[in-house]
Amino acid sequence: MSIKLSFLLCVWILLLGCCLGKFVVEKNSLKLSSPEKLKGNYECAIGNFGVPKYGGTMIGSVMYPKVNQKGCSNFSDVSASFQSKPGGFPTFLLVDRGDCYFTVKAWNAQNGGAAAILVADDRAETLITMDTPEAGNALNDDYVEKISIPSALISKSLGDSIKEALSNGETVNINLDWREALPHPDERVEYELWTNSNDECGQKCDSQINFLKGFKGAAQLLEQKGFTQFTPHYITWFCPEAFLLSKQCKSQCINNGRYCAPDPEQDFSKGYDGKDVVVQNLRQACFFKVANESGKPWQWWDYVTDFAIRCPMGRNNFTEECSDQVIRSLGVDLKKIKDCVGDPHADVENPVLKAEQDAQIGKGSRGDVTILPTLVINNRQYRGKLSRAAVLKAICAGFQETTEPSICLTPDMETNECLENNGGCWQDKSSNITACRDTFRGRVCECPIVQNVKFFGDGYTHCEASGALRCDINNGGCWKEAQGGRVYSACLDDYRKGCECPPGFRGDGVQSCEDIDECKEKSACQCPECKCKNTWGSYECRCSSGLFYSRENDICIGAGKYTASVASVGFIWMIILVMVAAAAGGYVFYKYRIQRYMDSEIRAIMAQYMPLDNQPEISNQVHHDI
After folding, report:
1. Which of 199, 262, 414, 547 is deepest in the core (most CB within 10 A)?
2. Could you read off the pLDDT of 55-103 as tens digits, one per residue?
3. 125, exposed or middle or buried, with CB in 10 Å at 0-12, 13-18, 19+?
4. How far is it, in rounded angstroms, from Cα 144 to Cα 138?
5. Residues 260, 243: contact at Cβ < 8 Å?
6. What number of CA atoms fall less than 13 Å from residue 314's CA on the CB side?
7. What is the pTM of this model?
8. Phi/psi of residue 590, each to 5°?
């Protein structure tokens, strides 16, 4: 049997074990809000690249390109742009599956200005996980790490329905929701990293090592403070019994074929063997076990990063001796680690690796682990780019809301999506108020609270101030103008809301209010003796021949009548005051009489039982003169 065939057989055994188990496609919610006939909730599969907005949501409008519909070419070559317009929804680009890698489609969509990519399946099947290309299969793997937009695979039927609606000129709006993609039950997050020590597998290995180096500080801080519980894991498989004595099995496996790993270079004739990877995986697992038992599990991050720096395969330092030097430098008990590793050549089970093989099988909602590397957060597999920022945001989304540690609330955790096109959210540039807010859960378009004034709206196209103080903020978004020392406003600063032109003006109250010419429209100052003059927001009315203008009645009256009217009003007020004074005096006299009467009655009753101060004492004693 050829070397290539033996290698492929071992890979087949691994894949067979995965198929017999349970691989879970991680999903998030997709809600269609328009058109009406498509309204509802749908499922979509999260792509294993880019940055899913774990813990957050995104609202966008779907576009389906007229050309390059599979997204395999750069959209700038066909003069297509999907950059959202200010005040509009972000663009979700819909492309068809096929002809190129999923990552190529996402990269081209991102460069075209799309905020997210939806890939419509080209066959009726259950949803699958869109993964990155295998090492060496892509012309340039570097672009994969630069993908930052979220991706989702949707069913063929849903994709066809969306394309039909778009072809009919209908607007298709979608809400991608990752809030329940990861469980967030309490104030501690439990997470696992399924990894290996191989550093010769191309872009994936480089990405994994860079992640370990970049995430180490945050991981150790979270672990030391008790916010997280981290466990590393390693994938191995067994060699089929019929090939235990073959050269290929012996080069890839330890403990008589029980625990195997693929050849790092996929070439058995040079370099390190798969069994070297298995032994180093075991040493890393044992290091964690010993460090965890000593109460310092976070030291695992120091060991794996230091080993990757000091003991790489490319410098022929991937050895036990180099590993021992790293362990000694960290002050961990080397003897305990060697006892844990045991004898790789013995025909016995290793309890650590046996436990790792058992843990590969999915439990609960997690599913089998078949992709390397794989991050599991709160027993749910993470999908997306393995970078410090993306993973830390996902872990922060795993905390029960309001229990997140301070590291999740620092400025460097913000996505800074609001810096470009205001994140596609509503904005009032005149007052520098925006609905865009950067959080570790991603950009949120949410109407703000400014100076104790709450804004209401969808956060994307509209936000309106509400409450008694709303006119203090940019005049409530209403019309306002000043002329000649007079200021008029259309803002309703009371129990009502909205904008309404003040008396003397007409218009929409938002963009404009035009002065009403009462004189020209003959709506005031129309009596025979009146002379009307229009003013801004009002009018002036004067009467001829010394008459006085009554605005309430819109008439001119004479001075005598005016004086008599004033006099009669004064006389009436005088009568009213006299009557009030008489009533008050009568009430006071009445109270005085009642009080005197009550006092006399009480004194008469009391006089029957005891002498009072104004009655003479009667002596009951006999005095004799001497």
Report:
1. 199
2. 888 899 999 999 999 999 999 888 888 988 777 789 999 999 999 999 9
3. exposed
4. 10
5. no
6. 9
7. 0.66
8. -65, -45
